[in-house]
Design brief:
about 120 residues; mainly alpha; Recoverin, domain 1; two-stranded antiparallel ribbon; 6 helices; about 5% strand
């Protein structure tokens, strides 16, 4: 039993160590390029900030792809999670609107690059 516990404790440390090692191996310029690329894909009009509509448009891409019949509803059989609840596009947009507002730290109605790339506040 003690060996199992110590093995369980070591795994997270090993994962953290591997993650840090990987981060050290990736040039910071590559990380900057990746974040710039993500930001530019969400900033549809290229004005250097992300509006709620731009955010919702980008965050709804996967929903539209999974909505096979195009009815604005993801039925359980259209989702990748067994027994998933049905969700409408409106419900999806409401959830991401709430996330947008949590990320909009300065409350200006737009997401800056830093706000978009930061985890949502609770």
């Amino acid at each position: 039993m003690r060996a199992e516990r110590s093995g369980i404790r070591r795994r997270p440390v090993a994962v953290v160590a591997a993650t840090l090692l990987l981060a050290l191996c990736i040039p910071s310029a590559a990380l900057a390029d990746a974040t710039d690329d993500y930001f530019s894909r969400v900033d549809l009009d290229g004005d250097g900030r992300v509006s709620l509509e731009e955010f919702l448009e980008r965050m709804s891409f996967a929903f539209r792809q999974m909505d096979v019949d195009g009815d604005g509803v993801l039925a359980p059989h259209e989702q990748h999670i067994p027994d998933a609840p049905t969700i409408t596009l409106e419900q999806h947009r409401e959830r991401f609107s709430a996330q947008f507002h949590r990320q909009d730290a300065d409350g200006d109605g737009y997401l800056s690059r830093a706000e978009l790339l930061s985890p949502p506040r609770r």
